[in-house]
């Protein structure tokens, strides 16, 4: 008997939740072409802040057969291109969003492994590449150059993890 009274309540709760989610998503959907006309400069700023944090973290780690050093070089190049992209955006009147706090860098994965910082760096680089690829702006070619350097860094980080096994 008690089960019969719980089932309708659960169904109502699920329907209410789904309705609230669909209403919320409908409220926040942007019109077609929104992201082409509204630069997502916060993505560029976010990635640049994260790259700087990863560089600092990896500088204190072992070399992995030269792959860590090569990844750091590509990350430095990517960071430079991201700075140029931000300069380009400012010169062309793009709107900036205040990011507030620094980029959160989660070092919780691969807990206890000496390779944890390299693994986390690789995962972050993959996310940043995706973020930058979704941004429709060119930023004077600097976004594409940053993506290229991040892809090279990701390859070196993968090789570093393989060398560390």
Describe the structure.
With 165 residues, the chain is mainly alpha-helical. The protein has two domains: 1-30; 38-164, Up-down Bundle (Ferritin), CATH 1.20.1260. Helices cover 71% and strands 0% of the residues. The longest helix has 27 residues, at 2-28. The radius of gyration is 21 Å and the shape is elongated.
Structure summarized in a few sentences:
The chain is mainly α and 165 residues long. Helix content is 71%, strand content 0%. 27% of the residues are buried.
Task: Provide the descriptors you would attach to this structure in a database record.
about 160 residues, mainly alpha, Ferritin, 2 domains, 6 helices, elongated
Please specify the SSE layout and strand pairing.
Blueprint: H1 2-28, H2 34-37, H3 41-59, H4 67-91, H5 116-134, H6 142-164
Q: In angstroms, what separates the terminal alpha carbons?
A: 58 Å
Average the pLDDT over all residues and give the rounded result: 75
User: What proportion of the residues is helical, as a percent range?
Assistant: over 70%
Give the helices and strands as they follow along the chain.
HHHHHH
Give the amount of beta strand, in percent.
Answer: under 5%
Named at the architecture level, the CATH assignment of the largest domain is: Up-down Bundle
If you compute it from the alpha carbons, what radius of gyration comes out, rounded to the nearest whole angstrom? 21 Å
| Main sheet summary | none
